[in-house]
Amino acid sequence: MSRLGKYTRRAFLGLGVAAAGGLAVGYYFYQKPYANPLDANKAEGDTPFNPYVMISADNTITIIAPRAEMGQGAHTTLAALVAEELEVPLEQVVVEHGPSSPAYFNAAMFEESAPFAFYDESVLAEMARSSMKVVAKFIGMNVTGGSSSMTDAFVKMREAGYTAKFVLLKAAAEHFGTSEDNLTLANGTITDTASGNSVTYGELASKAATISPPTEMKLKKASDWKILGKSQKRVELKDKVTGGRIFGIDVQLPNMAYGSVRMAPRKGVGLKSYDKTAALAIPGVKDVVEIRTIAGEGLGVVADNTWAAFKGAEALEIEWDDPLSLQNTDQMWSALENALTQEATFELGGTGSDAEVYTSIPESEEVSAQYRVPFLAHATMEPMNATAQHDGDTIGIWTGTQAPGIVQTVVAGHFDMDSADIDVTTTRLGGGFGRRLEADFALYAAVVAEATAPNPVKVTWTREEDTQHDTYRPMAIGEFKGQVTPDGTLKTMDMHVASPSIIQSVMPRTFPALSPLGPDNTVLDGAYNQPLDVENQRCQAHVADLQVPIGFWRSVGNSINGFFHESFIDEAAHKAGKDPLEFRLAHMTSEEFLPAREALKRVAEMSGWGTPLPAGKGRGIAHVLSFGTWTAQVVQVDVTDDTVTIEEVWAVADPGIVLDPGIFKDQIMSGINFGLSQALGQEITWADGQVEQANFDTYDAMRMYQAPKITVELLENSPRMGGAGEPGTPPSTPALANAIFAATGKRIRQMPLSNEIDFI
Amino acid sequence: MYPKIPLTVNGQNQEIEADPEMPLLWALRDIMDIKGPKFGCGIAACGACTVLIDGEPVRSCSQPVGDVEGEITTIEGISEGNELHAVQQAWMKHSVPQCGYCQSGQIMAAVALLEENPAPTDEDISDAMTNLCRCGTYPRIKAAIKDAAQTLGA
C-alpha cells in the first residue's frame, strides 16, 4: 500500500508555501532550497529528514524516488542510492514516487540537452551545461526522460542518505552517552558495541532531526558499496506479477465516472460542429463535453462505465475545421525534400573549415546515400488515461506521467489557476518511452472533470485514439555524402538532416510562455556528436514544419540519426573495401574515443565477428553514443526464401559507472527490441489529414516468435556516467540493416525495412 | 434496465447487472473492480486482458460477458493464499516485468500453456505466447516459462 496515500489530499496541496522546517537541508541546491515537500505530507510520528528520506517512529523507512517508474527500474536504483549510505537493505525500505514538487527537479536531463557532444569538455560546453542546470531548477522540472535519472540523482540521493545517517549517529551517541566510534549500523538499527544495546532509526528520528546536518559529505567509496553495483530485485516486482492496482488505469475513486475522448486529428484542427444525439442514446452515456485546449480540440464523453464511454465516443458525429495544408505523407516527404534544397537552419559540431571540400569530392572517391525514416507512435501498452477531480479551488489528477510538473503547469494554465493548486499523484506507468512527457491526456481529463464535478472521472483513450493522437517520432531524411580516399580513409563526411523540430512542437504545448532558445540539437543527435575521426565533417539541419505534433520517442534524434550515420559508415567501409569493424576502429583513434573502441572490440569477440557464416546468414555492426552511454551492437540474421529472421544480437554498453548490472542489461535488451520493432513494420502515415494506422493490427511491434536471443555485457571505461533506458535503441536498426546487406547484398536505406524485405 | 448475469470468478459465484454485449474485461474492471486484467487494444490483438475460462486462455476485451460459459479465473485467482503460482514465482526469479502492464496477461497465457503442455519447447512457447510486450521482455518470459515447467513437473 502507498504510504503517502494515507495522507489527505489536502496535505499534498500548497507545496509552494510549505514551511521549510525540520531538516529541509539545502546542501545540493544552488542557492536557496525549495521547501521540503514531505513537511506538508508527514503524519503523526513521521520525521522527514530531507526531500528523499522519511523515518517513522515505528522504524518504517520511506525513500522518495521522484522519477516515473515505467519499466526502467528507476525506483529500485534510486532507492538503492539512499539505502547504500543509510546502511539499510533495500528489502527494508518503502519506496514512494512522492508528491509533485519542484524540489525534485532534474538537472541532468537539461544539462545534457545543451548542444555539445558528451565527450566535449571544452570551456564553452561546460558553461552551457551549467547554465542549463540553472534553467532546470528555475522551471522546477520534475521530469523523467533523457535516460538521466541516475546521472541526476547519483550524488544528491546518496547525500540524502548520508545526511540522515550522520544525524542519526549523532543522536545515537547522545542516546548511549558514548562516542560515534563505538556505534555500528545495520538494518535500520544502531548498536552500542560496548553495552550491546540497540536503538532503531525510528526511535532516534525525532531527536536526530534537531541536529545540524553535515557541512561536508563523506560518501562511501565504490569499493565499499554493498547494494550499488550489484543486481537488485525490483522493489515493485510482486505487484507486477500479481496484477497489482498500480497503474493510472487502475485508479478507482468513490463516485467516479468513466470517460473517453474523440479528438481532432491533430493540433491545429478545430471542432466545427457535432451531433451528440446518437452518443447520448447509448445506454450508460451521461454527457458530452467540449474540449478546447492548447493540445487539441474535440469532445469528451462521460458514462457509467468505460465501454459505454468508448461506444459513445465512436457514435459522435463530428465535423472538423481543418485549415492545414499538408494532408498526406507524400506532401510531407516533399516538404522535407524541399527543405534539403534550402540553406541549412543551423549546424552543429563539424571539423575542418573549408566548405569547398564538400563540393570538390572526385566522383570515383564519392560515397553518397539518402536515408528515410517515418513517423512512429510510442504505442505504450497502457493507453493514455488520467483521472481528474475538481474540488472547489483545486484540481486533483491521478495519472502515470513522466512530468508531473508539466501536468501542473499545463492544467493550471488552462484553468487560469496556480500550479500549486493542481495536485498530481503519479502512479506507475504502463510504458512511457517519452509519450508520457506530454500533458494532453491529463489536461483532457481535467476538462471533462469540470463537467462531472464534484465527482471525479477517469478518462481512458481507446487504442485507436492513442495511436492516432500521439506526439510522433518525427519523419526525417538524411542525405549523407563522403569521400573515401584510395587508401581507404574516410576523409570527408557531409551530413544533412531534414526533419521537423521536436522542441518547436513540444514547447507551445508544455511551456507556452517560454520561447525555445538556440538550435534544437535533437534534430542532429546521433549524427554530429559521434566518436569519429574524419578530417572534414559537416552536420547541418534543415528544419521543416510538417504540421504534425511530434515529441520525444525513446532515444529521440538518436533513433533517426543512429540509423543514418551507422548505415552510412557501413557503406563507406564497403566503398573502402574494408571490414566494417576495422574501418570504424581506424576512424576512432582519438584518446577520448577509447570507450567506443573497447565496446566495439568486445562485441566483436562476443559475436564471433569475422568468423565465416553459412550462406544466407550475415552480421552487421553499429556503434552509437547516446545519453552518455557508448553502445556497440552486432546483429546476426538468416535470410532464407527472401525472409529475414533476426537470430541473435550481442551488445556492449559502457555507461562509466554501473549502479545495477541486472537492471541496466535489461534496459539495453529492452531498447534493442524496441528499436528492432520499427524495422519489422512500424510506420505512421497520413491520408486526408488522418493517421492511417489505428490499432495493433496495423501498427504492431515485435512478438515472441520474432524475438532474437540477446546477450549484453557492460564496461566501465567512460569517464562520466551515462543512462540506461535509451542507448540500446539507436544501434539496433543500422546493425540490422547492415546485417541484411552482409547476408544479401541488398542495401535498405528506408525504415521500416519490411517495406523492402520480408521478416518472419 | 440491464439483465442479471451470473458469473463465477475466481471461485466466487456472483451476479452482475450489465449489458450482455459488454466485454468481459470491462465487466471485471469497472463493475467487479477486478483490475488484474488490463486494457490494451480492445480487438484481441495484444493479450493484456487474458483470463482463463475453464482453463482456456481468453482475451476478455473481445468476449461479451453475456456469452461467458464456465468458470473465470483472473490473475487474482491463481495463487493459493500467500503462495504464488509457480509461474508467478518464476516471473519473480527471472525478474521478467519491466513496466509490468502486459504481465498479468502473459502470466495467464503461460499458466494455460503449461496446463496443456507441461514441457514446452522454444517453438511451442513462441506459438502459444502471442501476447505483446512493448518492453521486449520476451527472452525473460521464455526462460521463466521453462523454469516454471520444471517446478510444476517436479
Unreliable stretches of chain B, pLDDT < 50, 5 or more residues?
none
Termini of chain A, distance in Å? 44 Å
β-sheet strand percentage of chain A: 15-25%
Largest sheet of chain A: 7 strands, mixed
Query: Quick one: how many beta strands of chain A?
Result: 28
Structural class of chain A: alpha+beta
- Radius of gyration of chain A using CA atoms only: 27 Å
Describe this structure in words.
The complex is a heterodimer of chains A (760) and B (154). Chain A is of the alpha+beta class and 760 residues long. Chain A is built from 19 helices and 28 strands. In chain A, the strands form seven sheets. Chain A has a seven-stranded mixed β-sheet with strand order 10-11-8-18-15-16-17, with helices on both faces. In chain A, strands 13-21-20-19-14 form a five-stranded mixed β-sheet. In chain A, α11 packs across α12 (440-452). With 154 residues, chain B is of the alpha+beta class. Chain B is 34% helix and 15% strand. Chain B is built from five helices and five strands. Chain B has a five-stranded mixed β-sheet, with helices on both faces. In chain B, β3 and β4 (56-59) form a beta hairpin. The longest helix of chain B is centred in the C-terminal third of the chain and has 16 residues, at 138-153. Chain B starts with a strand and ends with a helix. The model of chain B has no long low-confidence stretch (mean pLDDT 97).
Please outline what is shown here:
Chain A is of the alpha+beta class and about 750 residues long.
List keywords for this structure.
heterodimer; A: 760 residues; alpha+beta; five-stranded mixed beta sheet; 22% strand; disordered N terminus; B: alpha+beta; 5 helices; 5 strands; 34% helix
List the helices and strands and how they pair.
The complex is a heterodimer of chains A (about 750) and B (about 150).
Chain A: H1 9-12, E1 46-50, E2 53-56, E3 61-64, H2 74-86, E4 93-96, H3 107-111, H4 123-139, H5 149-176, E5 183-186, E6 189-192, E7 198-200, H6 201-208, H7 237-241, E8 257-263, E9 270-275, H8 277-280, E10 285-292, E11 297-303, H9 306-315, E12 317-321, H10 329-341, E13 346-347, E14 366-373, E15 385-391, E16 394-399, H11 404-415, E17 422-426, H12 440-452, E18 457-460, H13 463-468, E19 476-484, E20 490-499, H14 502-510, E21 536-543, H15 557-576, H16 580-586, H17 594-607, E22 617-626, E23 629-640, E24 643-654, H18 661-679, E25 686-687, E26 690-691, E27 709-714, H19 732-744, E28 758-759
Parallel strand pairs in A: 3-4, 8-18, 16-17, 20-21, 24-27, 24-28
Antiparallel strand pairs in A: 1-2, 2-3, 5-6, 6-7, 8-11, 9-12, 10-11, 13-21, 14-19, 15-16, 15-18, 19-20, 22-23, 23-24, 25-26
Helix pairs in contact in A: 2-5, 5-6, 11-12, 15-19
Chain B: E1 4-9, E2 12-17, H1 24-31, E3 50-53, E4 56-59, E5 71-73, H2 86-93, H3 103-116, H4 122-128, H5 138-153
Parallel strand pairs in B: 1-5
Antiparallel strand pairs in B: 1-2, 3-4, 3-5
